């Protein structure tokens, strides 16, 4: 009889009630560790205890964070949600525990002891102190209470804003012309608009969706204003000028001034290219809709797609047969083997370990170092599963007291189609690229083998976290890499080189305008989290920023910012994706473009960039890899040169 276990092999989690038990255990362990921390003299031991504290809570909270959105069973989701709330409250309490903070303060104040610590331990001690400070520990009783209340309020506003950002807008169906009504969901006398319909070929449908979906909702507007004001209050209460100053502590960019310099420089360099892109789109609109050819914000995604498809025949169905899931996984295995000496093996699972029977468990094994950790692949579509592709840390790696290494465990979540009786799971080129991207995060988790779980793997600054994943996209678009695995699932034929070239060339069509749009979003995010009170309403700021940093006209009576859900998770850090892409681009061009399978470069990449997790300053990691410290101009050059990169030079005739 097979033994039963619980989710991820945690025995308690064989039922939803087990969350209560796991949480009790974590809270008991926490109390003992707090006692211990408060009675231990200054030394590296303190940092170890803090990390054990963090580990005890994260082991439960991280797992619950995943289960609450991904488990098919409502009872499990609900129990996990409750656990997240309770542990969140506990973390807030610890972050305002004066006695606990005092023991860390004594360590940080003891210059002799601090100088004797290794850089990673010092960094981790400072990071823990930073968590205390942003909770207002250094304030008097009354202000500290205000900080705690603000944190709670902000959490509520964030959840409220996220819900509002996805709510449909209703309109009386008589208002819409009859011939386009069938595109939308009808409920009685109303039509529900649930999104922008950006890919619809009818200009009128896109226009209607844009104007109705983005029509301002007073409740949501109040929620956003209150969120921005509360974030600003909290930041100022704990000693920062603005929320952006607080959010950028410890990042690669460091200050809002640096972020704006990066975004403005990039925008200036993109400007002419973006205009050319808009002209091309407008020409296409003129051809297809001569009565009404002015280019509007609802046209950009659609016409750039039309241009791509017309100029390069990149119909996904031509590519899918070459990208079976099995072939793609083989490709990743080959790449990791060549670059890092790592292989992926399918693992048997126990009964109760998985939340859905189609999840696969992979063991990540190094040729000399052995088992590095586990990746659970939750790859297939199912009802109720969130659509975004993402990477979750379930358990962070760390060096345990007994000298054993606690192995990292992660989940990769995608939404791939199931196999059919006639064909395996086939990926579009976009899905294949996403698989590589998410695997980049997973490898960072496996190889960021830090002593402390607080900085393990992807627990690093936001503007560095996307570098390993975006770098994988460069591998995924290189013919030498793709040629290793892309085989037709029926005939075994290789994917022709010309098809890979067409795909890569097609990505450059309107790429400047696409990047310009990202710059606009990033600037908007900086302004909203900058000086308060804001000089104008959020909508007026949107209008101004859109005209200056995007170029397509603002549409009256719309408020796109109310749908900008990234303001919650990436407040003041939306620029991160662009900055990470710039670094990934530099690393690719300098280290891998000559030979994407170069083992010496792979090892250097592991040693300089992946191995430290968040235990080393990100700029120092970049310096170690590129052997220079890049300037804002270097970042911008890297992004802009990608727009022009001539394809053939990419492979220096690798035939």
UniProtKB/TrEMBL annotation:
Cofactor-binding details, from the entry: Binds 1 zinc ion.
EC class: hydrolase
Keywords from the UniProt entry: Acetylation, Calcium, Cobalt, Hydrolase, Iron, Magnesium, Manganese, Metal-binding, Metalloprotease, Mitochondrion, Protease, Transit peptide, Zinc
Cofactor(s) of this protein: Zn(2+)
An annotated GO BP: protein processing involved in protein targeting to mitochondrion
Segments forming domain Peptidase M3A/M3B catalytic: 197-639
Gene Ontology cellular-component terms listed: mitochondrial matrix
Catalytic activity: Release of an N-terminal octapeptide as second stage of processing of some proteins imported into the mitochondrion
Pfam families with a match to the protein in the record: Peptidase_M3
Subcellular location, record wording: Mitochondrion matrix
GO molecular function: metal ion binding; metalloendopeptidase activity
Highest taxon of source: Eukaryota
The protein's Enzyme Commission number: 3.4.24.59
Family: Belongs to the peptidase M3 family.
Task of the protein: Cleaves proteins, imported into the mitochondrion, to their mature size.
Oligomeric and partner information: Monomer.
Protein name according to UniProt: Mitochondrial intermediate peptidase
Taxonomic source organism: Chrysemys picta bellii (Western painted turtle)
Gene giving rise to this polypeptide: MIPEP
């Amino acid at each position: 009889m097979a033994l039963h276990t619980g989710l991820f092999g945690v025995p308690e989690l064989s039922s939803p009630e087990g969350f209560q038990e796991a949480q009790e255990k974590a809270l008991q362990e926490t109390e003992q560790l707090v006692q211990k921390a408060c009675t231990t003299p200054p030394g590296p031991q303190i940092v170890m205890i803090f990390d054990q504290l963090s580990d005890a809570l994260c082991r439960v909270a991280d797992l619950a964070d995943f289960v609450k959105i991904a488990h098919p069973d409502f009872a499990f989701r609900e129990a996990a949600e409750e656990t997240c709330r309770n542990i969140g409250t506990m973390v807030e309490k610890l972050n305002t525990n004066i006695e606990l903070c005092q023991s860390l303060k004594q360590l940080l104040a003891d210059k002799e002891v601090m100088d004797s610590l290794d850089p990673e331990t010092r960094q981790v001690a400072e990071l823990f102190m930073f968590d205390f400070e942003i909770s207002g520990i250094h304030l008097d009783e009354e202000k500290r209470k205000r900080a705690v209340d603000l944190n709670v309020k902000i959490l509520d506003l964030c959840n409220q804003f996220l819900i509002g950002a996805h709510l449909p807008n209703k309109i009386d169906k008589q208002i819409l012309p009859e011939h386009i009504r069938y595109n939308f969901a009808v409920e009685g006398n109303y039509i529900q608009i649930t999104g922008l319909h950006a890919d619809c070929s009818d200009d009128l449908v896109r226009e209607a969706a844009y104007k109705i979906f983005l029509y301002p909702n007073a409740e949501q507007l109040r929620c956003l204003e209150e969120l921005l004001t509360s974030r600003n209050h909290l930041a100022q209460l704990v000693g920062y000028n603005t929320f952006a100053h607080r959010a950028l502590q410890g990042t690669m960019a460091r200050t809002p001034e640096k972020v704006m310099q990066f975004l403005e420089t990039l925008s200036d360099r993109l400007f002419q290219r973006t205009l050319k892109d808009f002209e091309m789109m407008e020409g296409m609109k003129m051809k297809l809709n001569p009565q009404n050819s002015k280019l509007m914000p609802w046209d950009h995604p659609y016409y750039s797609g039309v241009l791509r498809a017309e100029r390069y025949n990149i119909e996904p169905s031509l590519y899918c047969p070459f990208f079976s899931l099995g072939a793609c996984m083989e490709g990743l295995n080959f790449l990791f083997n060549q670059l890092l000496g790592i292989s992926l093996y399918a693992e048997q699972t126990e009964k109760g370990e998985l939340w859905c029977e189609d999840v696969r468990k992979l063991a990540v094994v190094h040729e000399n170092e052995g088992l590095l950790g586990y990746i659970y692949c939750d790859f297939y579509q199912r009802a109720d599963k969130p659509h975004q592709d993402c990477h979750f840390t379930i358990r962070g790696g760390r060096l345990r007291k007994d000298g054993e290494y606690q192995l990292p465990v992660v989940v990769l979540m995608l939404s791939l189609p199931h196999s059919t009786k006639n064909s395996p799971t086939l990926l579009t080129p976009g899905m294949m690229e996403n698989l590589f991207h998410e695997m980049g995060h997973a490898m960072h988790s496996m190889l960021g083998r830090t002593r402390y779980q607080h900085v393990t793997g992807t627990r690093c600054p936001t503007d560095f976290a996307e570098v390993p994943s975006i770098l994988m996209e460069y591998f995924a678009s290189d013919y030498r890499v793709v040629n290793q695995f892309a085989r037709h699932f029926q005939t075994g034929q290789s994917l022709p080189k010309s098809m890979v070239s067409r795909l890569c060339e097609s990505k450059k069509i309107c790429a400047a305008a696409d990047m310009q749009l990202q710059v606009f979003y990033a600037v908007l995010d900086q302004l909203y989290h900058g000086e308060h009170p804001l000089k104008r309403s959020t909508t007026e700021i949107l209008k101004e920023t859109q005209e200056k940093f995007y170029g397509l006209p603002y549409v009256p009576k719309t408020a796109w910012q109310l749908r900008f859900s990234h303001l919650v998770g990436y407040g003041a850090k939306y620029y991160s994706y662009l900055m990470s892409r710039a670094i990934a681009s530099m690393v690719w061009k300098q280290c891998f473009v000559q030979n994407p399978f170069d083992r010496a470069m792979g090892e250097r990449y592991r040693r300089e960039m992946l191995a430290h997790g968040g235990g080393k300053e990100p700029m120092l990691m970049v310096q170690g890899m590129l052997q220079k410290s890049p300037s804002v101009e270097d970042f911008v050059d890297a992004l802009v040169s990608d727009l022009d990169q001539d394809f053939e030079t990419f492979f220096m005739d690798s035939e």
